[in-house]
Amino acid sequence: MKGKIRLTTAQALIRYLAAQYTEIDGAPQQLLRGIFAIFGHGNVAGIGEALEDMQAEMPVYRAHNEQAMAHAAIAYAKASKRRRLMACTTSVGPGATNMVTAAAVAHVNRLPLLLLPGDTFASRLPDPVLQQLEDFSDPTITANDCFKPVSRYWDRITRPEQLLQSLPHAIRVLLDPAECGPVTLALPQDVQAESYDFPEYFFARREHSRDRAGPDLRALAAAEMLIAKSRRPLIIAGGGVLYSDAADTLAEFATRLDIPVAETQAGKGALSWQHVRNVGALGVTGTNAANELAANADLIIAIGTRLQDFTTGSGLLIRKPGCELLSINVARHDLGKRNAIALRGDANRCLEELGARLTESHTDPAWLRRAASLKSKWAEVYDAAITITQTDLPTDAQVLGVIAEQFPDNATIVCAAGGLPGELHKLWRAADSNSYHVEYGYSCMGYEIAGGMGAKLATPERDIVVTVGDGSYLMLNSEIASSIALDLKLIIVVFDNRGFACINRLQTSLGGKAYNNMLDTSYANSKTVPRIDFVAHAASLGAVAQKVPNISGLGAALARAKAAPRTAVVVIDTHPVLSTEQGGTWWDVPVAAVSDNADVKSAYRDYRDKRN
């Protein structure tokens, strides 16, 4: 048929995706870097056949765990500053639902992720098929409905021609700076293999450009007036600064207008740690410098941040009496948080247009002297925290100090959950916008190793140093094998503190007794608790692995790991209790209002006083 091409649904899907391009640094690149795939009966004969036929146009990466491969795809998008992305395909059933957690990670962190789970038969003729979830009252519901609350766009393709409408919508959401997040296209296995006469134009190469929405002129004028009258301003740099490629613009803006800059977890690295206006991390895991400035500012300019509880000290750190809050964000949903004055638009464009209007600094020189003094005092805290002392076990901070010495340049630190993100946020000195890769929006244990693999795919020229606690390692470590098979070298440092030490510290700080967190005290029979040999385990997956008996040998071990020909794992025992006490601010974690435990009663009184 003239102007038509007969393809299966799966073939049309892959061909369309392969034709999508984006412009990066003046050169077109395919929008999708490739597809992570684990095949099963729900996708092998449909999508599997289509991918095999288009290997040259759409690379396929085999993984070992569905959640992990989706984490890797998320990390790729994060490291690519949302300019490129990856897709993941699985079979129906557990293969699909394994990705739900990863979808939530992408949703919370506003990162593009395309999920292509297999689904049950649209015809329903062989129902119930293997792995089919049956709803007793609604036959249209399948396991893939679990993706609805964690997807920005969700569709079930029940006829081939539905791709003509659904795929452009999916790409729009994946590229939209405000709506960006996970897209789920559920693909019934019979429909994957059905054919249709698709119009040839549908597969024409399409080059997408970045959408940079400009601010409303009235809102811009209002923001200009706020900044001009402020004498004690503070900028909060969020992830939107990085995704907008606004780091250089922010540096010029903050320097010229003399405004200190604090960083969220997602925004860390927006300014080099050496930049004169960078006052470090803000919030629950923040520095004394940034938090004291936030508590005394007369204007806080929040750029590209969700203003979540860790950033704002559960809302109590910012919006002190006499302090205005200006929110610059492309997402309307984020603009109204904390009763902020809104300036909607792309971060880079808003900063450029504000900068053009503001010709001189109005900041009180005493405010800048105070910022410089606080920053200098925090440098002393940093030095003390990383200094190696003769304790029985090293602290996380001391281990991070040795890592920093071994990887001073061109390295990316990767982490996700537990106590390490707090220490990293306070103490890691990010040299550039690719130095710091921490998933802390969803704080998802198990992201670390898979995330390192995605970061390496995006930035192969950089050393990727994954920092992971023993708890997260045990949750999800299978992609060590994938990283070796795909020649994506990682340097993984396992901090072994024998359990979930971070939450154990939180438990005891709230008056509770240590319970169900540490390996040696969580089981009725302590004799059954294993001494886990992480070196033997990592080696069995193909890694170069070694354990360091004490911190004095860590530097040499890291040097050997850096020189290793493939993924290398370094294991070190760390202190389960000690962490960097300085910095931080209050975090709202409710305490039991009624308890027979005197420590809990005391903690509740303290909680009530701070909350009120």
Please describe the structure with a list of short key phrases separated by commas or semicolons.
3 domains; 19% strand; 612 residues; globular; single chain; alpha/beta; six-stranded parallel beta sheet; Rossmann fold; 24 helices; 37% helix
In angstroms, what separates the terminal alpha carbons? 72 Å
Q: What is the fold named in CATH at topology level of the largest domain? A: Rossmann fold
CATH C-level class of the largest domain: Alpha Beta
Helix-residue proportion: 25-40%
Mean pLDDT: 96
Choose one word for the global shape: globular
Structural description of this entry:
- This protein has 612 residues and is an alpha/beta fold.
- The protein has three domains: 4-208, Thiamin diphosphate (ThDP)-binding fold, Pyr/PP domains (Rossmann fold, 3-Layer(aba) Sandwich), CATH 3.40.50; 217-377, Rossmann fold, CATH 3.40.50.1220; 387-573, 3-Layer(aba) Sandwich (Rossmann fold).
- Helices cover 37% and strands 19% of the residues.
- The protein is built from 24 helices and 23 strands.
- The chain has a six-stranded parallel beta sheet, sandwiched between helices.
- Helix 23 links the parallel strand 22 and strand 23 (568-573).
- Helix 1 packs across helix 2 and helix 3 runs parallel beside helix 5 (100-109).
